[in-house]
Amino acid sequence: MIPNPDDVVVLDHGTGAKLSRLLIGDIIGTLEETYAGELEDSALLTVDGRELAMTTDSFVVDPVIFGNGDIGRIAVCGTVNDLAVVGAIPLALTLATIIEEGFPRAKLKKIFASVRDAAREAGVRIVAGDTKVVRRGEADGVFLNTTGLGVFRRAPLRMASVRAGDRIIVTGQLGNHAVHLLSLREGLGFENRVLSDCAPLSGMVSELLEAFPAGTVRSIRDATRGGLAAVMHEYAFHGGFEVRLNEADLPLQHETVMATDMLGVNPLHLANEGCLAIFVEPARAGEVCQHLRRNKYGRHAAIVGEIFSSSRGAQVRLADAMGAIKVLDELEGAELPRLC
Predict the structure, then answer these.
(1) Contact between 279 and 217 (Cβ < 8 Å)
(2) Is residue 30 within a helix (H) or strand (E), and if so which, with residue range?
């Protein structure tokens, strides 16, 4: 019997797509006035007159160690990126670890070495942590949880700043992280040519915001679970916009397209760990794109779409190379098994 997602939690509730949005709505609705967030990647706090950013995340990845990374690198990068996209400078992280009985200590040391190296690259310190061990079969090897703290040296970036006419820039090739992991799991043979894009992007974001006047960059979001499509639907719903993407402009690695065609999935719905969607005022979009391409993590940056006012309600549409426009539907769950 297939579980009813209206009655019980199913795996698709954790994919970042429509069921995730509905589950989060249930949680926030139950918390009522005790919830003080705004559904941005980081919360804004004012402490003694100083604005701080705070975010928290949990990380589950299969496999926990993959071709060019592991769960430790993902945990640090994911947290600092969530701080960076609201315009904050990441300062410190906490690190909590849940380890399944029998997990190899050599693998655990490798994961913590990745945490160390990624933290050094991002310029953050691990300031607190916790470790729990559970019985065999009670966890999927190892789970990590982080909380990140950042400070503002400029005005925060918010979804509410996005307006009709803004251009959408994507900073990296789409879908590579998910394809890399799936290829390792299923033996597809693409993992040596399609690598995970996992990277700390706080330096690139800080350089960008310092290079342009305030207001040039309206908002930023990292396209993790649910991929670029989930981000576009989030912004469309938030502002009542039509988001229009141009298929020919999307940065896609050839081998990723081959893999997704073979699997019958859309790379726009696949997870990334080092790719940003940046919403920019139209007059400066070209300059912003060129600036991003000078950074090693932004060399594939491309202007891929535009925000439009909509009299038909929130929607995301995709224009193909021939100019035909189709609706890019929001997924209920995931097209693929859980990867991260």
Answers:
(1) yes
(2) helix 18-31
Spatial strand order in the sheet of 276-280: 217-222, 276-280, 167-170, 302-308, 242-246, 315-319, 325-327
pLDDT per residue, tens digit, the chain (340 aa), is: 667 888 888 877 776 777 788 888 888 888 888 877 777 889 999 888 889 999 999 999 999 999 999 999 999 999 999 999 999 999 999 999 999 999 999 999 999 999 999 999 999 999 999 999 999 999 999 999 999 999 999 999 999 999 999 999 999 999 999 999 999 998 999 999 999 999 999 999 999 999 999 999 999 999 998 999 999 999 999 999 999 999 999 999 999 999 999 988 999 999 999 999 999 999 999 999 999 999 999 999 999 999 999 988 899 999 998 889 999 988 876 665 556 6
Give the integer Cα–Cα distance in Å for 105 and 89. 33
Rg from Cα positions in the chain: 19
CA separation for the pair 56, 19 (Å, rounded): 20
Domains of the chain: 41-152 (3.30.1330.10), 159-327 (3.90.650.10)
Contact between 214 and 281 (Cβ < 8 Å) = no
Query: Which of helix, strand or coil describes residue 2?
Result: coil
Neighbours of 5 (CB within 10 A): 17
Angstrom distance (rounded) from CA 260 to CA 31 = 39
> Distance between CA atoms of 53 and 209, rounded to whole angstroms?
16
For residues 201 and 276, the answer to whether their CB atoms sit within 8 Å is yes
CB burial readout 172-205, b (16+ within 10 A) else e: bbbbbbbbbbbbbeeebebbebbbbbbbbbbbbb
Please enumerate in sequence order all residues whose Cβ is within 8 A of that of 14, keeping only pairs 6 or more positions apart, or say none. Answer: 20, 225, 338
Q: DSSP class of residue 33?
A: G
Q: Would you give the distance in Å from CA 268 to the centre of its chain?
A: 12
Task: Give the burial string for 129-165 (b: 16+ CB within 10 Å, else e).
Answer: eeeeeeeeeebebbbbbbbbbbebeeeebebebbeee
